[in-house]
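To: structure desk
From: M.T.
Subject: fold request, one chain
Message: Could you run this one when you get a chance? Sequence is below, nothing fancy, just the single chain.
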Amino acid sequence: MLQRARQASPPYLIFESKDMCPMLILHGDHDALVPREIRARFYDRIVEAGLEDKADFYTLKNAGHGTKEFFQPETKALIRTFFDRNLIVDAR
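Reply: Done. Structure tokens follow.
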């Protein structure tokens, strides 16, 4: 069972290839569902794999898990910038 859980866990899957897709990580500093340590370990693995240029990480001040801070204009601007930089639009 533990092996199957590991096989389905993103930290063990995404770092097997330098072809990791661009990733935006937003984490609230008051998130009661996802502990800071899990988020930190996740991003640390990205850095250890040398893929930090493919990941943007932001801690949202006073935010919980999916709280209103994720929908503020400043956060939307971060998201829009990430997508503008990473999505290829084919205008054909």
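Reply (cont.): The CA atoms of residues 18 and 50 lie 8 Å apart. Let me know if you need anything else for the meeting.
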